[in-house]
C-alpha cells in the first residue's frame, strides 16, 4: 500500500473550536478526489478518575449534537503550552473539583477518527482522587458530577441505563484491563 498524495488544500472554515479543510488528493491508483474534507481539532485528553473507595467520578452534561444528556469521563483539550497531563488535571479539577496526589497513568493514545479527523485522544487513569475544590466551569458549561461504583458502570453501559459516548466506554475498559493486570 502507498499513501495518498495531497495536491491542494483549502480551508473552508476556521474557528477556535476547529478547522474544516477541503483537500484535493490523489489515490495511489491515480484517481483524484476533488473534495476530501478533513476536520482539524486539537488533541484531546480524558481520564477514568477513581476514588479510594472505587467510585468513578463522572460528569453529566447536555450535548447539543446528541440532543440529550450524556454521562462521561472528565475530558477536554490542552490549552497554551500545557502538557497533556497538565491539561488533563486542569480539566478534571475544573469539571469536578477532584484532584489526586498520584500522577495520571497513561493508558493509551489513539486517533479519534482518522478517516476525517486529524486529532488524537490520550486516555489516562487517575487513582485515589478526592474532592478538594468547587467546580470552575466555563460560562457555557453546566456539569453535574456523578459518582458510580467502578464495577457497576459496566452494567449501566451494557443495559443502556445511561447515555454515554465511545471515549468513555473505551477509557473505562482500558482502565478495567489495566487494573485487572495490576492485580495479577
TrEMBL record:
Lineage: superkingdom: Bacteria
Sorted UniProt keywords: Hydrolase
PROSITE patterns linked: NUDIX (PS51462), NUDIX_BOX (PS00893)
Domain Nudix hydrolase: 40-170
Cofactor(s) required, per the database record: Mg(2+)
GO BP, one annotated term: ribose phosphate metabolic process
Cited Gene3D superfamilies: Nucleoside Triphosphate Pyrophosphohydrolase (3.90.79.10)
InterPro entries the record matches: NUDIX_hydrolase-like_dom_sf, NUDIX_hydrolase_CS, NUDIX_hydrolase_dom
Protein name: ADP-ribose pyrophosphatase
Source organism of this protein record: Lysinibacillus odysseyi 34hs-1 = NBRC 100172
Amino acid at each position: 500500500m502507498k499513501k495518498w498524495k495531497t495536491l491542494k488544500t483549502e480551508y473552508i472554515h476556521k474557528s477556535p473550536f476547529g478547522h474544516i479543510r477541503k483537500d484535493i488528493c490523489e489515490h495511489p491508483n491515480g484517481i483524484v478526489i476533488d473534495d476530501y474534507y478533513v476536520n482539524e481539532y486539537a488533541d484531546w485528553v480524558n481520564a477514568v478518575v477513581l476514588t479510594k473507595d472505587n467510585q468513578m467520578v463522572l460528569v453529566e452534561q447536555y450535548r447539543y449534537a446528541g440532543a440529550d444528556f450524556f454521562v462521561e469521563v472528565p475530558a477536554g483539550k490542552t490549552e497554551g503550552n500545557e502538557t497533556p497531563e497538565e491539561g488533563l488535571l486542569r480539566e478534571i479539577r475544573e469539571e469536578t473539583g477532584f484532584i489526586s496526589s498520584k500522577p495520571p497513568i497513561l493508558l493509551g493514545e489513539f486517533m479519534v477518527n482518522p478517516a476525517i479527523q486529524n486529532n488524537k485522544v490520550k486516555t489516562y487513569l487517575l487513582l485515589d482522587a478526592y474532592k478538594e475544590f468547587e467546580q470552575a466551569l466555563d460560562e457555557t458549561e453546566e456539569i453535574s458530577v456523578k459518582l458510580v461504583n467502578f464495577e457497576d458502570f459496566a452494567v449501566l453501559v451494557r443495559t443502556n441505563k445511561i447515555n454515554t459516548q465511545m471515549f468513555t466506554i473505551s477509557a473505562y475498559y482500558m482502565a478495567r484491563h489495566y487494573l485487572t493486570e495490576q492485580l495479577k
